[in-house]
Amino acid sequence: MPLPKAELHLHIEGTLEPELAFELATRNGVELPYADTDELRKAYQFEDLQSFLNLYYELMAVLRTEQDFTDLANAYLARAAAQGVRHAEIFFDPQAHMARGVGMGTVVEGLWRALGDSEAAHGVSTQLIMCFLRDESAESALETLEAAKPYLDRIVGIGLDSAEVGHPPVKFREVYDAAAALGLRRVAHAGEEGPPEYITEALDVLGVERIDHGLRCLEDEALVARLVRDRIPLTLCPLSNVRLRAVDVLSEHPLPVMMDAGLLCTVNSDDPAYFGGYAGDNFDAVRKTLGLGEDRLRELARNSFVASFLEHDEERRAR
Ligand code: ADE
Ligand code: ZN
To answer: What are the residue numbers of the active site?
Structure first.
């Protein structure tokens, strides 16, 4: 039996497996520049975050209808459930779809058809987090928040993702303030490729409650002390870090050092279709390669619920 866990860092578009990508391409009459799933899989060799994002955005062309988003989410929820995920806080990237003429309503309603049934169908409770693309403008983020207003009963919070370096959190101060005023929870990717200053800025300027990745906090001792003291959760993604070369090899991943330092670490899959594994696969990989014992794995699983946006009684039930 896999350990019950919550997944807090998961891009739904990053769960698009090659088989489903081809199925949706055929259904929607979209031509993919790959002969078959084998050839597509061969393209999964990444140099860095940007080289991954190029493929990630390219493949999204197959997602066009509500049904596509429902199928995508159901496929993820089935896989996650099989690996012990009991609760998932799921990112989506509306700007990447709206730029292709796919409306906010299509995305949210489509995802919701799977998420709304997920407790009954998969035994997984869910929440949706809408991410802004940080390499798009601050105005575009504000327009996206405006477009989401009819759907806010289905969206628990906002996040910030895409190409990090050169796009500091401060660029999004206004939209984070507006989201806070609407009662939305706030998270942001920071310190994946970007410097530790972006983590500090996400906390101080955007008021985030969790940091997605946060790996590079280790370069700033005072920041580590602050994250420990304030119990700020980090949603780490070990297999992602190896595939995007944030760390050279998994055996050198700093997760054990971070846990020893007292950081509130969680383990997540990020974009599992691209990075070689879902939540349970990430747990297995750190157990085998980093030699984490049963107590450490239980701590990670417990942290995932503590760091979630579940209320305390919901949290207990999910475990
Ligand atoms: N979008 C999807 N996956 C991402 C990641 N790992 N970092 C930033 N943006 C992303
Ligand atoms: Zn991510």
So the answer is: 192
